[in-house]
């Protein structure tokens, strides 16, 4: 964590007015000097994470990392520590945390607002001078977005602002560094404090159906490590700040958990490490004990030593197997595979070549190697698999803000204060929602999809071919999205005669073959036994839910 902030940079880039330059040349001013560079934009980039806020000017090499929380210490009961003020605390043991986010979304504005006030103060990072680029989580609530806009435009009086997802910045940074076309298909794994998002990009736009969210993040890992240590050694349930440092310093990811557990069960093994806990007098931050260092032994005589064995790799294993702690969720690698396979066939093979890891959890040693091994075992062998881990996965999205400023039409997406005062949040939603969104028709829109178009009502056991009746509503998809009869029959295992797409009603009657009757009888038999356990209220709720869901044919391109 950076302990100091440089609000004013040492050097300033000169901005040139091209219209004035032309007038000077016409007036006879000497023009032998070199032509100035194109006017550049300097913006304040804010990556508003649930645990840390990465903030800095676009021309800075690295951001300042500030805790996004308010802390209260036992040693100083009359003072609240906001953000990086925790560095001024003499004793960080037993810190009480106030976090503004819950599951990644801002829910406590009485905590978030003071943190922003501290960061955006005049002597740190003033926001009333430059455009602000701010990140927000995927699927952010409209009410939260309106509150953010109201605070920044009305209270902080920012001249202009732009909001987007952190994965958008990571994609821009990756394509720029690797010198790839912006339309390169890729998939980004963003594993942070509260959750993990897997976001595929096709033709430079997020593919909605491929996005996956896992409620597994660094907060869950820290809490689980506290439980393990409290059960086996010391009671550290109130030492979130210290145990989070223990996790960052000692934990790692292994490729073969079974073999590592066998090694950890031995009396003398290389996995065991002694961690020196801080006393906040001589030791401000804990560290792994070095047996060969004799100079540290005198200092460590009165310190508490934490012995770590299989906790070092069992805790990060939750990222890949959440079921180990009773969570009904897939792991990160499985979610990446499912996300890739949910994309159109034409892009899957290229997408596996560009798997980008960002977020604090990706910094665990061995995370990249484990991800590659998992993907290699799940994806077809003829596909090329490449996993990219940046030098600093925590600040990688923030670094993408500089790449965003290089987009030719970036200025058109900024919302100015005058536009907000005139049109309100309407202009903001229209402007921001068009970013990274493909409004044009896909190239293969006029072609018939090769994917199977087949719906299945799991409750009633009905198979639908081009038409479905749910609550009296008929769903008639376009002819371009209706699969052929042979594809339908192969998908359902039925013997269906070939017929045109216009006879959708006749297709259902023809499908009543003997094999189809057997399938229906078995499904209806299971439904009769299961429906007896549901009351009328649950059945009506299911029908209401089904009627409110819009069904799409598989294989249709949809970009967001």
From TrEMBL:
Ranges for region Disordered: 469-540
Keyword Cytoplasm: yes
Localization (cell): Cytoplasm, Cytoskeleton; Nucleus
SUPFAM superfamilies, A to Z: Actin-like ATPase domain
Key word Cell membrane present: no
Entry GO terms, CC: cytoskeleton; nucleus
Major localisation: cytoplasm
InterPro entries, sorted: Actin (IPR004000), ATPase_NBD (IPR043129)
Keywords carried by this UniProt record: Cytoplasm, Cytoskeleton, Nucleus
One Pfam family from the record: Actin
PANTHER family: ACTIN
Family designation: Belongs to the actin family. ARP6 subfamily.
Name of the protein: Actin-related protein 6
Organism: Psylliodes chrysocephalus
């Amino acid at each position: 964590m950076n302990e100091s902030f440089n609000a004013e940079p040492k050097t300033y880039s000169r901005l040139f007015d091209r219209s004035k330059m032309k007038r000077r040349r016409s007036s006879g001013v000497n023009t032998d000097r070199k032509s100035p560079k194109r006017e550049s934009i300097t913006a304040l980039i804010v990556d508003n994470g649930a645990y840390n806020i990465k903030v800095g000017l676009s021309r800075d090499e690295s951001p300042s990392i500030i805790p996004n929380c308010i802390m209260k210490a036992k040693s100083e009961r009359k003072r609240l520590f906001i953000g990086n003020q925790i560095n001024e605390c003499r004793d960080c043991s037993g810190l009480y945390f106030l976090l503004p986010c819950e599951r990644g979304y801002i829910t406590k504005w009485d905590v978030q607002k003071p943190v922003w006030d501290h960061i955006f103060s005049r002597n740190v990072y003033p926001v009333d001078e430059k455009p602000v680029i701010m990140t927000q989580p995927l699927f952010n609530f409209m009410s939260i977005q309106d509150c953010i806009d109201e605070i920044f435009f009305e209270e902080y009086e920012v001249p202009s602002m732009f909001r987007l997802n952190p994965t958008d910045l990571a994609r821009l940074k990756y394509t720029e560094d690797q010198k790839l076309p912006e339309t390169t298909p890729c998939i980004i794994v963003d594993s942070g404090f509260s959750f993990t998002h897997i976001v595929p990009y096709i033709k430079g736009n997020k593919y909605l159906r491929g996005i996956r969210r896992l409620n597994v993040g660094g907060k869950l890992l820290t809490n689980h490590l506290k439980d393990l240590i409290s059960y086996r050694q010391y009671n550290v349930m109130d030492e979130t700040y210290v145990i989070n440092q223990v996790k960052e310093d000692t934990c790692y990811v292994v490729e073969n958990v079974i073999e590592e557990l066998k090694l950890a069960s031995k009396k003398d093994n290389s996995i065991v490490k002694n961690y020196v806990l801080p006393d906040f007098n001589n030791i401000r931050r804990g560290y792994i004990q070095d047996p060969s260092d004799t100079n540290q032994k005198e200092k460590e005589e009165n310190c508490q030593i934490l012995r770590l064995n299989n906790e070092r790799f069992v805790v990060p294993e939750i990222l890949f197997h959440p079921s180990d702690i009773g969570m009904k969720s897939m792991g990160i690698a499985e979610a990446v595979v499912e996300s890739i396979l949910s994309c159109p066939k034409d892009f899957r093979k290229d997408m596996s070549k560009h798997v980008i890891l960002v977020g604090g959890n990706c910094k665990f040693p061995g995370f990249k190697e484990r991800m590659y091994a998992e993907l290699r075992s799940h994806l077809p062998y003829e596909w090329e698999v490449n996993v990219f881990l940046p030098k600093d996965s925590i600040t990688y999205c923030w670094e993408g803000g500089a790449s965003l400023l290089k987009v030719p039409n970036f200025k058109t997406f900024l919302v100015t204060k005058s536009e907000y005062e005139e049109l309100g949040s309407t202009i903001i939603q229209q402007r921001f929602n068009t970013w990274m969104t493909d409004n044009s028709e896909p190239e293969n829109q006029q072609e018939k999809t090769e994917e199977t178009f087949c719906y299945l009502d799991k409750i009633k056991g009905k198979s639908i071919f081009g038409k479905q009746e749910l609550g009296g509503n008929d769903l008639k998809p376009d002819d371009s999205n209706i699969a052929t009869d042979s594809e339908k029959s192969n998908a359902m295992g039925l013997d269906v005669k070939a017929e045109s797409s216009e006879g959708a009603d006749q297709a259902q009657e023809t499908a009543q073959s003997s094999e189809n009757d057997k399938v229906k009888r078995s499904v209806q038999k299971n439904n009769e036994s299961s429906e007896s356990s549901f009351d009328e209220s649950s059945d009506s709720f299911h029908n209401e839910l089904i009627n409110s869901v819009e069904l799409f044919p598989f294989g249709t391109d949809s970009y967001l």
